Structures are given as structure tokens and as C-alpha cells.
Amino acid sequence: MRFMIVDDDSATRFMLQDIIEDCELGKVISSLDSAVDIDNELLTAEKIDILIIDLLMPVRDGISTVKSIKTDFLGKIIMLSQVENKEMVGNAYSLGVDSYITKPINRNEVVGVIKEVSKHICLKKFVSNIQNDLHNLSYERGINKDKSDKKMTITERGNMVLRDLGIESEAGSKDLLEVIDWLGKNLDSNANDFPSLKTIFTQLVNEKTPQEGDCKKIKAVEQRVRRTIFQAMVNIASMGIVDCTNPKFDDYASRYFDLAEVYALMRTLEKDEKPQISNSHINSKKFIRTLYIESYK
């Protein structure tokens, strides 16, 4: 993370910079004693992710500065103040301040607030990357759609979905593509008689090895697929935390996963806890069936 610290008290600035750098929270790009020259052009030029600014300063205070930059500033703002006036604090939040640190500076509070704000920035960037990929994908599909659709194989279409879900490079992604390829050769387009996962995995393993019923290999495929689907569900839950109204989140979350499990993961992530696959119900058959139907089109 790239920080800008603005406070007319040099001791506060030095203390904040020491905490940020000692705890490896990011890099302080600018440390200023006045907000007079701060504008969006400066913040953009220095690629600031987090602006930490004092509420009360001479000439131009923190509130006035936030008012002037918040419309176009895409980063996060943390306000510093000794003032505990609820109305003033509320006003700061209403203007777009993302978090608050009280003076005198408490190291644990600073670290906790910055980590929380940084987490939201990372999630926002992650979702933004997914949205950009989806936008580019939609654009590519719109160019010569009929022609390109005829050329694309079922595994190529499936791989596009896996890429959208952020699991293209996961170990089980290859297995998933092999699964839908096998299904494409053995089922009709509507998947009316969808086989059990055990049948699918057994057939795949048997086609690769002469020994039938290799239980260890079948189990290995099943576990790789399950872990990969779980990672896809974690990625979608992360998107939902940033914007649960995003139509792509709603589309993927409801069609590929059990929605209740996605919401449970969102609650886990919001608590800054690491999601555990053992605590989640992974509906592998629903995911594979949907992936197959989408890729067969």
C-alpha cells in the first residue's frame, strides 16, 4: 500500500510512518505538514492508496480537503483527530472518510485500522480485475459471435468460465475440463441423465490407465476438483463482500454454488478469518452440471 500522511504535528507523522514501515503495512510516499497543496492530481501522480489526514489543521483542515478530493479520489481516507465530538465525526464519515484514528496515537489501533482498510482495497482490486476480465470477455464474444462460437470447443468455453472465476491455474481446473469434455461426448445437450460424480471420475481414470477401479487415483481427482470448486466459491464470496448487487456475483453465486454457503463464506471473510474447506458444503455436482451446460451451448 502507498500512503500519504498529512498532519501539522511532525511527531505524529513520524510515529505513523514508523508504525507503517515497522509493521510492513506499506510505504509512506509523502509526509506533509499542510493540506494546502493536496488535490486529486497530486494523489494520482503519487499513486496513493491510503490518505491519512488530520481533522484540525491551520489554513486548510481535513474536512475541507476531503470535500475537495473525495469525488475523484479512488483510494481510502483515514481521519486523525483528538476531537471526540460525535457530530463532527459523523460529518467526516458522511463526506467519505473510511475510518478514524484517535489521538494520542495507539500503535495497536493504527495497525488494526490500516489492516482493515487495506483488506477492503485488496478485495476491491481483486473484484475490479474480475470485472475487467468479464468485460473483455463479453467484448470478445460480441465480435463475430456466430463465427467464433462455431470454432470454440467445449473445453475452450469451459476454460473461459474457470478464468472468470479465478481458478484457471488451480490444480483441479484440468480435471474439470476433462470432465466436461467427457460429458460432451457421452451426454445430450440438456444433461437429462446426468451420471453420478463417482461414475464420471471412474470413467476418466479408467480411460487413462489400464487397471480399472484405481481407487486412489479416483479419490485424488475428486479431491482436486473439490478444492478447486471451493476456491472458486471463495473468490465469488470476496466479490460479494465488495458489491453484493453486482449482477455477475448474483449470477455465478446462485447458478454454480449453494447460495447459503457463499453467504457463510462472506461472513467468514468479513471477520478476517481464513475460510476452511472442512467447514463448507461443496456441491461439486451442481458446479460441474452448470459448467457443462454453459460450455455445451
Topology summary:
Blueprint: E1 2-6, H1 10-22, E2 27-32, H2 40-45, E3 50-54, H3 62-69, E4 76-81, H4 86-95, E5 99-102, H5 107-142, H6 145-151, H7 154-164, H8 173-186, H9 197-208, H10 215-242, H11 247-256, H12 259-270, H13 284-296
Parallel strand pairs: 1-2, 1-3, 3-4, 4-5
Question: What descriptive keywords fit this protein?
Answer:
297 residues, alpha/beta, five-stranded parallel β-sheet, 13 helices, 5 strands, elongated
Radius of gyration: 25 Å
* SSE string, helices as H and strands as E: EHEHEHEHEHHHHHHHHH
Integer average pLDDT: 83
Beta-strand segment tally: 5
The SS-based structural class is alpha/beta
Number of helices: 13
Give the strand order of the largest sheet, numbering strands 1, 2, ... along the chain. 2-1-3-4-5
Q: In words, what does this structure look like?
A:
The chain is α/β, with parallel strands linked by helices and 297 residues long. The protein is built from 13 helices and five strands.
In a nutshell, what does this entry contain?
The chain is α/β, with parallel strands linked by helices and 297 residues long. It contains 13 helices and five strands. It is 61% helix and 9% strand.
